[in-house]
Amino acid sequence: MRALLPLLSVGRGWRVGAAARPPRRVMSLYRTEERGHPHSEDYRLFFKNVAGNYISPFHDIPLKVDLKKNLFNMVVEIPRWTNAKMEIATEEPLNPIKQDEKNGKLRYIPNIFPHKGYIWNYGAFPQTWEDPHQKDKNTNCYGDNDPIDVCEIGSKVLSRGDVIHVKVLGVLALIDEGATDWKIIAINVNDPEAEKFHDIDDVKKFKPGYLEATLNWLRLYKVPDGKPENKFAFNGEFRNKAFALEVVNSAHECWKAMLMKKRDRGTINCTNVHICDSPFHCTPEEARSLVESIPTPSMSKISNIEEDRWYFLD
User: Fold this and answer.
1) What whole-number distance in Å separates Cα of residue 253 and Cα of residue 262?
2) CB neighbours of 172 closer than 8 A, spacing ≥ 6?
3) Residue numbers in the chain where pLDDT is lower than 50
4) Which of 71, 219, 237, 247 is the most buried (most CB within 10 A)?
5) What is the four-CA torsion angle of 236, 241, 244, 245, rounded to 10 degrees?
6) Would you state the pLDDT for residue 311?
7) What pLDDT was estimated at residue 2?
8) 122: alpha, beta or left, given left = phi > 0 and alpha = psi -120 to 50?
9) HSE-up of residue 241 (Cα within 13 Å, Cβ side)
10) In this structure, are residues 215 and 236 in contact, taking their beta carbons and an 8 Å threshold?
């Protein structure tokens, strides 16, 4: 008879059937729970609030922390220097973080010389949505149907599932296969150098070359897979904080409309625990039942770890 796999504490949260390590909290309000094994199709990272109830990182974590201080919550999906393409699962109940797949294979971002994996802590703003049915007035392209992406440029390497407070500094408009895919430039407020940064020009001043590297990375990262270079609105120029805040606020309004069934959500799962007036609201008990109904992860689908090849591109 096969023994049942225990749920053991690991890192920031919990993992099924793994060796135990002391848990760490995700800041003070959120923690995570791992199910399955990293680099496998069934890996999921679920979020819990301070009361221990399952929540959605997409819908239940507030976007805004302190508007006067320009502070927002960011959900870290991909730590700097890693390659696994992790993302909030927008179509699954409670939207855990999972590894993206393409053509039946787990996605890994290639290393483009001189970089290793992602060159920032990469993640998303909760409670934002780039509406695929709404044409952006600035780019003349529709949204990409995802939360807004965030590139965190601080000096620390963060962890998957961290929920941090960031300051918005600027934004870049990537056009991804004809859709608007905003990239917010932000910095962790707890970064040792955060007080130096107030707008996009401060990035140019205190981290020379970082914005140029960001543009080049985003332009080329799909080329090793045989795709053309990515395009940008505004000739690839970064817009300032004021412009970026307008982008974030617009995406927040689109998200609110979606949560109230005022926009066509398509296949996005809007199940949430904290938005009580939303028709997609569920109780903490119902949320727990959703998670517990997921089959026990398989032990045999571990893929090759991290991309180890370098690409030299012009």
Assistant:
1) 11
2) 182, 183, 185, 214, 215, 218, 232, 236, 238, 239
3) 1-27
4) 247
5) 180
6) 87
7) 35
8) beta
9) 17
10) yes
